[in-house]
Predict the structure.
Amino acid sequence: MTREPVFADLVGRAAALAVPGERRLLGICGAPGSGKSTLAHRLVDALGGRAALVGMDGFHLAQVELDRLGRAERKGAPDTFDEGGYAHLLRRLRANDEPVVYAPEFRREIEEPIACAVPVGCDVPLVVTEGNYLLLWPDVRPLLTEAWYLDPGEDVRRARLLARHMAYGRTRDQAWARTTGSDEHNAQLVATTAPTADLLLRKID
């Protein structure tokens, strides 16, 4: 399904999933720089206490482990995450049989995940989770009540990535190399998963 909704439409669709007494998971996915985090934060803010945000990026392998495995230069690729740990957390969140579940959070300023940074109480009906590989990992997709895929266009996406990398201390050349290197490879992989989303979003006003 392809459409160009206004943000209020998306809030309404997410709100319909936030049914008191139930627990549902909304996945927001897309390639690096597509705007997943921004949309997820806006939705959760708009829904107030009815929603909580849990990011896939909290399951990045620590830098020391990436170095040990020889994967540091490919940070952001599927095998640089704890895929099984993320799926296990989503199962706990969906089961909703614990008073509170603590999720990790990725901190870009230190490029490391922080454990137990996000508490999700059992009274929160909707968990919004965002990340690149929600539609790629076979154990994750069945846990999502809905999955939305963001595709703002390649020029927009690359410009966002370039600005992000520079904002966190890379030179323009370093930022461009990352944007067109490992980020681009990961983006091409993620793009193959778009057809399995429930909603394809190209532009959000």
